[in-house]
Amino acid sequence: MPARSSQRRRLWLSLQPISCALWLLSSSCQAHVPYLAPESFEPIRDWVSLEAAFADKFFLPEAKFDQSEFQVFTPAGGREQPAEQAMVRSRTVLEHQLKAAGTYRFSSGQRFGAVFKSWQQDGKTVNSRDPKQQPPAGIPLSSHFQSVTLAETYVSKGQPDQRVLQPHGQGLEIQFISHPNDLYINQPVKTRLLFNGKPLANTNLQLHQSGQSDEAQSQQLRSDANGELQFSVTQPATYLLLVRHKTKAPADAKAPEYSYSYSAVVEITD
Hints:
Elements: H1 3-13, E1 33-38, E2 47-55, E3 63-64, E4 71-73, E5 79-80, E6 84-87, E7 92-97, E8 102-107, E9 111-121, E10 124-128, E11 143-157, E12 172-176, E13 189-195, E14 198-199, E15 204-209, E16 219-222, E17 228-231, E18 237-248, E19 257-268
Parallel strand pairs: 11-19
Antiparallel strand pairs: 1-2, 2-3, 2-7, 4-5, 4-8, 6-7, 8-11, 9-10, 9-11, 12-13, 13-14, 13-17, 15-16, 15-18, 18-19
């Protein structure tokens, strides 16, 4: 195994939990953070293995990523299904062969999940996704939405290229201006936040480094008027980028609002 791949493998094995506060619903942690992460950001004998899950602690899977159509976007502009896919209780495992050189985009596909409700009762916030649980008569809902999640990551075979970096143009996403497989410490990482293909201005993004369990250690970033933001880090590690956006849902939706979340897992090396 090349030295660079060995280093990335050690980074994968060293990942430690980060706070469940990545994803807050009202005043308590009610949902899991979605992620899609490769075992190595370089293919091993042309194959790559990935793990998709929901977790309160980063890279410690608690619930499999189901109800999703996983996709692989190829350097030639094609779209494939993962060659192998298996689900167990805590995670979904994917494996895929990278036949051609270039950059591949792995995606969970947009997943419409649970419907959440919140209300105030006896001085406390009640959060529930049980449709049978309703607030007492006369108490209004403080929030009512359905989760919409998308998790992605990138793996390059040989020299990284640009084709799969084009935005989907639907829902919430992070467009990488800097190549996600060519990121280095002390150098700017440039991104753009998009919603339905349009820049998402003045929106927060959370940057979490593997091995940190304190939310206060994360970087809180905010996009400018053009939806763009950039950051740099001083430590080589695997990082999770998480952005959320809540908006009005269509009239035929299960809830009046959609709560979108998009996560991207990248590696920044020295």
